């Protein structure tokens, strides 16, 4: 955790603001310039407000980076996707093409299926939640078994480190109220003295907005957005399903171990997710409020899970 706060934030999100009608129209024109067969297709905005604009046209998905950091990730994503496809029979991993004219953007086949946000997840039946957790766990086990040498031969390096606990705390102190800051400080203290983790190839963004899921059955039909993938700490990679729910993470971790993954420190995974949310707060610049609310909601959900005895007291 040595990076400065202004280093490239691969573990968190920037907020460049909503896309204008002009930006969407420009993106559509760029997509049609490489796929003229889609000129009559209706453009559907799939994701905006983070660091990429996602645009669906017919059977294709186009992604337009909105920041320099997003452009950097986009250029490296095809190699990461190709490595994952070699080791995963399911779910479907897209085969991406990067276009550099008339501007930088990517194209891949659209993956049918629902995104899994918290409301969607908690509306899913128990059997569907269990199946989704098992299939996410299978992805983790397969990716974490890829030899480091093979990852490096593919030209894929380490994920960017987070800022140090001290720097995160100092930055968070400018944004968070005292009770929330105290809780964050305790978590940062535990993480700062934790033992070094095993380095694995991971997705490092495995949350429900990057999934295509049959929510009735829990079948994971697709996994995408590998721009953050790389070599990094195993427990950190396992923390991302908590963007959906700590319940999903707990189910994933149980099935990860049952499928042959190495033992997991559940409390450490949850602490790391708290740190990840703090990173998002301090990276949000002048618009931290949504991330502060999300951090508050996460800590409340974590407390409920602990009080219900779902895992240790931290």
From TrEMBL:
<protein>
    <recommendedName>
        <fullName>Aminoglycoside phosphotransferase domain-containing protein</fullName>
    </recommendedName>
</protein>
<feature type="domain" description="Aminoglycoside phosphotransferase">
    <location>
        <begin position="59"/>
        <end position="260"/>
    </location>
</feature>
<dbReference type="InterPro" id="IPR011009">
    <property type="entry name" value="Kinase-like_dom_sf"/>
</dbReference>
<dbReference type="Pfam" id="PF01636">
    <property type="entry name" value="APH"/>
</dbReference>
<dbReference type="InterPro" id="IPR002575">
    <property type="entry name" value="Aminoglycoside_PTrfase"/>
</dbReference>
